[in-house]
TrEMBL record:
Record keywords, A-Z: ATP-binding, Nucleotide-binding
Pfam family, one: ABC_tran
GO MF, any single term: ATP binding
Superkingdom field: Bacteria
Residue ranges annotated for the ABC transporter domain, each copy included: 3-240
Protein name: ABC transporter ATP-binding protein
Species, as recorded: Actinocorallia aurantiaca
Gene3D superfamilies named in the record: P-loop containing nucleotide triphosphate hydrolases
Region (Disordered) residue spans: 255-275
Length: 275
């Protein structure tokens, strides 16, 4: 299995956001997308998952363009953990997670299958939500809501998992819990995982490969030890800093020391505030 982009470009409001992206993600890889706000991380994830159509270029899954596949066909292979849950009053955790079964079962299958189907129950168990299954989503804590989002994606039983800022708005303990869980699930299920992350140290610790986006293009792509350098901190993130090796986990850690007089935010064209 491989997911590949060829000359992928996309614009928003008449302004280019991504241009000429050539990227390949192989089966079983864990890839982090990093960059400043507005660099196109979340947009690239939406393009890779077929949610957005490219302005030009193609996205291919096993050599087949996503543009020639139906949304349901794509959803059988690619599951996305979105940044927010749907605002449905009274929706319980189990009801939400069960919606992940739609790509595999279709509308008639969803009517025939009870809410306690095996894939839904497994997704709840894997994310530690079995005891909260009948809770209404609005009553959950931030960490519990993140796990519910992850369980919804896992219930699809897809072999590719996209995570859009899975640690946003979480305290440090819950960030680590979510990232550790994703790493365990990847190993257990043989998943291919692509994650949008802001924390460079987490990208280095929990993924095998980092793709840094800057000014609508891939600035660097490779293992964390090769990508995370003082030059990257300066050129992409607009800070002077150092990179050291963690003595316990042996991955690179970034130490930002000071903002540079002119950072990337001042140099790039206007773009949405997220991504």
């Amino acid at each position: 299995m491989s997911l590949r982009t060829l000359g992928l470009s996309f614009g928003h409001g008449g302004r280019p956001l991504l241009a000429g992206i050539d990227l390949t993600v192989e089966k079983g890889e864990s890839v982090a997308l990093v960059g400043v706000n507005g660099s196109g991380k979340s947009t690239l994830l939406r393009l890779l998952s077929g949610v957005l159509p490219p302005g030009s270029g193609t996205v291919e899954l096993d050599g087949r363009p996503l543009a020639r596949m139906s949304r349901r066909q794509i959803a059988r292979r690619i599951a996305v953990m979105h940044q927010a849950l749907p605002p449905v009053p009274g929706l319980t955790v189990r009801q939400l997670v069960h919606q992940g079964r739609y790509p595999g079962q279709g509308p008639l299958g969803m009517l025939r299958t009870p809410g306690h189907d095996p894939a839904t129950e497994e997704a709840l168990a894997l994310t530690g939500l079995t005891g909260l299954a009948e809770r209404v989503l609005d009553t959950l804590s931030g960490g519990e809501r993140q796990r519910a989002r992850l369980a919804l994606a896992l219930a699809q039983e897809a072999d590719i998992l996209f995570l859009d800022e899975p640690t946003a708005h979480l305290d440090i303990r819950h960030r680590l819990e979510v990232l550790e869980l994703v790493r365990e699930l990847r190993a257990a299920r043989g998943l291919t995982v692509v994650t949008v992350l802001h924390e460079l140290d987490h990208a280095a610790r929990f993924t095998d490969r980092i793709v840094a986006l800057h000014r609508g293009a891939v600035h660097a792509d490779g293992p964390p030890s090769a990508v995370l350098t003082p030059d990257l901190l300066s050129e992409v993130f607009g800070v002077a800093g150092r990179v050291v090796i963690d003595e316990i986990h042996h991955h690179p850690r970034c130490i930002p020391d000071a903002p540079l007089p002119t950072g990337p935010a001042e140099n790039r064209s206007s773009a949405p505030s997220r991504g």
